[in-house]
Amino acid sequence: MHWIFAFGIFVSLLFVFVISYKNKPSQGPNRFGKTASPVGFTTAVRRFFTGYFDFAGRASRTEFWYAMLFYVLLLFVLGLLNLPDIIVSILLVVTMIPFFSVTARRLHDTNRSGWYQLVSWFMPVGTIVALFWFNEPPSD
Question: Pfam families from the entry (predicted)?
């Protein structure tokens, strides 16, 4: 029964890659905009929330990792506060979209499509590959 689920995930991922390959953005330098500049923690957190639906453009390594640090600290604090589940769920849903957008912008900075963040959902190999992508220097 588990192999059916795994096969379904594999087919879905293959479908997404085929669609993203057909709708591939233009090739060459600066296809996602100019290279992002490094930022500090407060600027990264501000961009995390102000770029809520901004899936275009680029995010520097520092912006991405500071945003992830903020997200992990937020999750840690939510766990410590022992809030009702509905409040925690609402907060997680509210921060889920900026999480995906900053991840897409970081992949754009490495000259990859934002759809490649789906690879990180497949543990452990996909997560390891995605971590290497997120840590790459910017490329044009």
Answer: DUF805
